[in-house]
Amino acid sequence: MNFQQLNYFQESVERKSFQKVADNNFVSQRAVSISIAKLEEEIGFQLFVREKNRIHLTPVGQRFYNYVKDMINNLDTTIHLLQGEDKALYQSLNIGYHSPFEGLLVTQHIIQTKEQLDVQFSIHEQAIENLISDVKFGLIDIAYLIVYQNNPLKLDDKRFKLKTIYSDNILMGISKKNPIAQGKSFPLAAFKDYPILFYTPEDSTYIQEGFLRSIEIPFNQLQIRREQSFQHIQVLVATGQAIAHYCGGLIDLPLQNEISYLPIENRPSPYSVQLIYLKNSPKIDLIKKYLRTLRNKK
After folding, report:
1. pLDDT category, 83, cuts 50, 70, 90?
2. I need a labelling partner for 127 at 20 to 30 A (CA). Which of 43, 50, 216, 247 fits?
3. According to the model, what pLDDT value does residue 2 have?
4. Cα–Cα distance, 21 to 9 (Å, whole number)
5. How far apart are CA 199 and CA 46, in angstroms?
6. Regarding predicted confidence, which is higher, 228 or 75?
7. Has residue 84 got a pLDDT over 80?
8. Average pLDDT for the chain
9. E strand spans, the chain
10. Half-sphere exposure for 243 (CA within 13 Å, toward CB)
């Protein structure tokens, strides 16, 4: 039994003629008759009473027709639903980012994109190492990554594509009540005097390594620690209990008016925000449309 046999059967009932079914499907009347006969042989009962130039259902054929009609209608409905889900899948993007700095760009870009494209977004915050892994395995379509000029990403997989979308310098945040805040830069000698905080939502060493390479001071001479809450970092910095490093140009945080943001003395510390995605992603067309909306910024 196959779908064509069932389709011929349903049409034969509704058109009341094998010939009309044949004409509608561009086959011979004999082909339709043979198909119905094979179906009857397979199911073990007669579906039609055949008379000259006329067919009509047997009682059991009527019951079988009701079943087949419901089955085909359900199949059509299921196909349409799955086609809709498939279309929705390829009209959605999973976006990953690491910190509130890239998060600010993510927010701006998604708002901008939704003004131009009918796209749904799912947003995830993770450590940089996990973002790269999730892009590699197709769990995230595009990841926003902070990349330090002196600590570039080492991506061995040639399927990755990187695109720089923003760049500026790393700044140090310190309470405005601290005398250092009145200066034009953060002195290198002062790093040893304060706890230094860096943010990552999960275990990660990339941010710490990039920061240490920026200031070129040995780790064992510093009080450096990871925090999982940016709100807590802001409280500690604003109240003078610690300092922290920030991505210049992307600061839109609680208590920011209580904090001064200074460049590092004699240490230009460039960073960039890069997008990473797979060149062979099944959503590559949608990814390219997303990137075009960023270029077409209004």
Report:
1. low
2. 216
3. 85
4. 9
5. 75
6. 228
7. no
8. 87
9. 48-51, 54-57, 92-97, 120-125, 142-148, 160-175, 195-199, 223-227, 243-247, 259-263, 270-278
10. 27
SS3 246: strand
The answer to whether residue 30 scores a pLDDT higher than 70 is yes
Pairing of strands 92-97, 120-125: parallel
Cα dist from 233 to 37, 38, 221, whole Å: 78, 76, 21
40 with 46: CB under 8 angstroms?
Answer: yes
- DSSP annotation of 281 reads -
Question: 3-83, which class in CATH?
Answer: mainly alpha
* Architecture, CATH, for domain 169-269: 3-Layer(aba) Sandwich (3.40)
- Contact yes or no for 5/27 (Cβ under 8 A): no
Instruction: Give the residue carrying structure tokens 């094998």.
Output: 18
Looking at the DSSP assignment, which residues form a beta bridge with residue 32? none
- Band of residue 194 on the pLDDT scale cut at 50, 70, 90: very high
Span 7-29, pLDDT tens digits: 889 999 999 999 898 888 888 98
87-165+272-294, CATH topology level: D-Maltodextrin-Binding Protein; domain 2 (3.40.190)
CA nearest to 173, candidates 190, 156, 160, 152:
190
3-state secondary structure of 268: coil
Q: Do the Cβ atoms of 181 and 175 come closer than 8 Å?
A: yes
